[in-house]
Amino acid sequence: MKKKIRIISLVSLLLLSIFSTQSVLASESVDDENDNGGYVADDTERLEVPFEHDGYSLTTKYDPRESNHLTDIRNQSNVGICWMYAAASTEEQFIATRYGRKFDVSELHGAVALSDCIKKVNKSQIEPGYYETGPNRGSTTAVAAQYITNWNTPIFYNDVHKWCSNISEAEYPLSIMQTFYNKHHNWIEIKDDGDAFTDSKSLFNLTGFRYISKDMDNIKYAIQNYGAVSAGIHYDSNMVKNVNGNEQTLNNVSRNHANHSITIVGWDDDFSKDNFRNGFKPEGNGAWLVKNSWGYQDIRSGYMWISYEDGSLEASDNYFSVTTGVQPADESEYMLSYDYLPIVSHSESDKIFKDRVLLANVYDVSSFTDTYDCINKVMLYLKAIDCTYNIRIIPLQDNSVPTNVNDYQVLSSGTYSGEGYFTVTLSKPFEFSSGDKCAVIVEIIPNGSNSKIYIPYEGSYNAARGISSGESYYCFDSGSNLKWQDAAANDVYGNFCIRPVLKDTDSKDYSVSIFPNAVTNTDEDVAVSYVSDYELFNISNSDNRVLYQDTDYEINDCTVTLKKEYLTSLNGRYQELYFRFNNNIVTVSYTHLRAHETL
Q: ∠ at Cα 151 (148, 156), nearest 5°?
């Protein structure tokens, strides 16, 4: 049983009372249309399902640069990992849009984690890592998604190097690759910068990521609500035209395959077709605002305008994706997973199911029960149309998955259409009471005649590790006496993405403080300092409005400077600011502070 240590807790949310009286251009070699420049086409057919946005009002123009809600332009230099930059950009833009905070995620950390740099050394024996390819190579969105959605290192070796995803660029900068890669390939994170790779803390945890359909209104809805859409384009300098000083335009009149990953962050229905180069002009007006990862230059702003009619956007192997959920990183939670290769599925008609399908991952939790009490969430990857999912967690007494799951309580249920990752909170935590193993079972049930169920599993992608027996199981039986099959015994399937999140429910004493705790002068910028071991996730006010970094406040180290423009906009009204840190630290120490006490 877990050793219980009771520590006096602080509540989570820090409250502040307020009342009135140019870089070098990257060379990714994408001018040659025979060079993929870091982008690799996805050979798995993705399920592109639109959002339900009937009645949602869309403007004719949306340019978040005008409201300063975009994170800075990144520069991938000569490292061919545009696919990781695009995936990281969707995360950063989601948080900037929804929570107002601008983070800078280390793309190199993800590229290294997804390479043969992860090694286990045992005297003279060197065992391979997850992938057999180096960190400076082209790849897909599906590969990047495996990293950004994993909160912790997947189960692989007992002594594999541990890490968290989505760490700060400052902790694992791209310069490591530029300095050490040619001399120390495979060892850059262990030999030269191991502590930064393995001991860094996540800036946040991703809870949702999905593929979306390419119809225009759906893309606009995704951008306006989730910040950015990741996609591929075919870049050819012969098609580029410079307009308005350092703005660039691009239009492929044919359906060339994409060779570069970008993020779409805005649009303009009236963007003139005359802004495009002769010979490559579209038939009509309208363009997407694209954020690139080649830094700034005199002739480049870091953004491009891509015509709505661009052929590479419509390529059949170019899939659009979007981040749909993020939470503050929480050290009291730990995710278990087996999958670390990109999720694939069969598209043949005989591999699309119309009847109930059950998938299960079995986990040995014996090494975690001294630290964690229960499972409180589960992350899934589903690919389905109009289906219901039910999640059960069952303790295993004899190492076999039960043949009748109906005897066990459903801990989470919902409907799903689409393809991607999402996280659910269980209606009742699964507590570790007995046994060393448990099965996390996902039952997928069609809702109607048009329902479809695919089996999403870990595919083969230059992989050094395959599925092991006893990890993932599947069952296609519709009866009550289930006949489970071990996925490792089937050459078709790999591991399933069914990731339980372990929870430590013991209270912790997190030391966080801010000064001053009240602001009396709103006629000038006000600096508020905080002391915390944890990252500031975002700031909101008692009117349920998010404050936006670089618009309402600036942040430098552990000082938040509230801008005069925001303070004066309060017009003398009493206001409370909530500073939310990772680990959900939120204290209400100053809730009852009376305004007159600080005059």
A: 100
